[in-house]
Amino acid sequence: MADKKQGVVGAFLDGAAGLAGSYAATMTHLFRKPVTEQYPEYKRPLPARTRGRIVLTRSPDGKERCVACYLCSGACPVNCISMQSEVGPDGRRQAAWFRINFARCIYCGLCEEACPTLALQLTPEFAFCKDDIADFVYEKEQLLVEHGGKHPDYDFYAHAGVAAGGPKGSHIGEDDPVDVKSILP
Ligand code: SF4
Ligand code: SF4
């Protein structure tokens, strides 16, 4: 009988202790500063390397950087990039059309890693909702921006584009050719 009484008292004390702990936790939070962020009025600063909407950037001379090499579409794990290459009036290779389906994109950034001309870049923009899923298919005209993005001074063609036709050693940052006979033992 005594054991039964002790069991009931113990259970009551356990319950009371649990209840007191819960009330104590509530009271400590009651006087804390609220942490609710009123989006979209307040937009939390995002990390610099946040991966969001993709853009196609331009060289400092305003020309399109993309040379339609297909490397980005080859690297894309969900096959959401497609394009058709052509040669422009100035002899530069470019994309006749370029298409990204953002409804399939997983914003992994592999296409940006693969791009040799730094044309394709992911931006921190993430809020571009649509009512119609077909509107997530962006064409080249929607992807092209008027600046160089993260690399404003980089000019792919000055290094490896049309200038590649000149003699060896005449390109930016290229050393003069080595006379191999001069280094023979
Ligand atoms: S971010 Fe990833 S999924 Fe999206 S287009 Fe680039 S490679 Fe494809
Ligand atoms: S990898 Fe870059 S240059 Fe090549 S097709 Fe894609 S965006 Fe254009």
TrEMBL record:
It catalyses: a quinone + NADH + 5 H(+)(in) = a quinol + NAD(+) + 4 H(+)(out). One of its GO terms (biological process) is aerobic respiration. Its EC number is 7.1.1.-. The keyword Membrane applies. [4Fe-4S] cluster 1 binds at residues 66, 69, 72, 115. It is found in: Cell membrane. It is a peripheral membrane protein. Residues 56-86, 96-125 form the 4Fe-4S ferredoxin-type domain. NDH-1 shuttles electrons from NADH, via FMN and iron-sulfur (Fe-S) centers, to quinones in the respiratory chain. The immediate electron acceptor for the enzyme in this species is believed to be ubiquinone. Couples the redox reaction to proton translocation (for every two electrons transferred, four hydrogen ions are translocated across the cytoplasmic membrane), and thus conserves the redox energy in a proton gradient. PANTHER family: NADH DEHYDROGENASE [UBIQUINONE] IRON-SULFUR PROTEIN 8, MITOCHONDRIAL, NADH DEHYDROGENASE UBIQUINONE IRON-SULFUR PROTEIN 8, MITOCHONDRIAL. This is NADH-quinone oxidoreductase subunit I. It comes from Solidesulfovibrio aerotolerans.
